[in-house]
């Protein structure tokens, strides 16, 4: 029997079944013209991305401006549409081709640049899930995606990112404890459907008010990100949990 799809959309639907986790998930829908406009009207900003890609490839932000125009950002490039029909036409070719539309989270920023978090959750056979490491990915100048390769951003500790952010006045210890709790709940929710997985890299975020969000879950996360931290102890701990090469998971590395 073939394995269950590891697409963003499939994992989102599994996570959404948990009433506890649903409030940590940005609203997400299969890309259709109706869902595109409904969510853009509701949130003012949305993300369109392929459900099967990794590393920030193909992530596009659409923002409604104050003068009822639409700003589309792809990488560092921005394009302005003044007509609704022109914007619809530009996205019509993506409809029905494995794209999702998602509520845009107003990410907390470190020194003015958006950042999100990679939280590693792992288990050894017949043992509970554990958080084995976490870091912050800070977007490069002018980018909306935090992927280091695409945006030229940087990796810092979560503690440092929080100190440089709008959340510096909040209790960092409590924020990180809640982050770990949500990450573990996500792993526990997904694991019955993906019994072969023992490593998850959960991309999470704080918004500007300190609320926690689950952006997506990767089953073959790029561990080398942790080598960019001065302290290599988290990398060593993460590697100690790996029984098989990441390529065996069936999901592309990011």
TrEMBL record:
Stretches assigned to the ATP-grasp domain: 17-246
InterPro entries to which the protein is assigned, alphabetical: ATP-grasp, ATP_grasp_subdomain_1, YheC/D
SUPFAM superfamilies in UniProt: Glutathione synthetase ATP-binding domain-like (SSF56059)
Record keywords, A-Z: ATP-binding, Nucleotide-binding
Protein name: ATP-grasp domain-containing protein
Protein source organism: Paenibacillus marchantiophytorum
């Amino acid at each position: 029997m073939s394995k269950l799809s590891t697409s963003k959309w499939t994992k989102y639907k599994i996570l959404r079944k948990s009433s506890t986790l649903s409030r940590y998930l940005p609203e997400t829908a299969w890309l259709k013209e109706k869902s595109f406009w409904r969510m853009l009207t509701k949130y003012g900003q949305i993300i369109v991305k392929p459900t099967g890609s990794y590393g920030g490839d193909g992530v596009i932000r659409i923002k409604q401006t104050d003068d009822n125009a639409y700003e589309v950002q792809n990488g560092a490039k921005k394009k302005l549409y003044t007509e609704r029909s022109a914007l619809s036409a530009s996205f019509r070719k993506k409809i029905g081709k494995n794209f999702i539309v998602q509520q845009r989270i107003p990410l907390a920023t470190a020194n003015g640049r958006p950042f999100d978090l990679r939280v590693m959750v792992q288990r050894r056979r017949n043992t509970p899930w554990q958080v084995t490491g976490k870091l912050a990915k800070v977007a490069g100048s002018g980018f909306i995606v935090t992927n280091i390769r695409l945006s030229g951003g940087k990796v810092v500790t979560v503690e440092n990112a929080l100190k440089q952010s709008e959340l510096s006045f909040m209790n960092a210890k409590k924020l990180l404890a809640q982050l770990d709790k949500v990450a573990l709940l996500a792993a526990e929710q997904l694991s019955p459907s993906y019994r072969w997985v023992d490593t998850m890299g959960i991309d999470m975020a704080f918004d500007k008010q300190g609320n926690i969000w689950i952006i997506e879950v990767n089953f073959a996360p790029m561990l080398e990100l942790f080598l960019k931290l001065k302290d290599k102890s988290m990398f060593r701990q993460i590697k100690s949990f790996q029984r098989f090469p990441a390529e065996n998971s069936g999901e592309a590395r990011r």
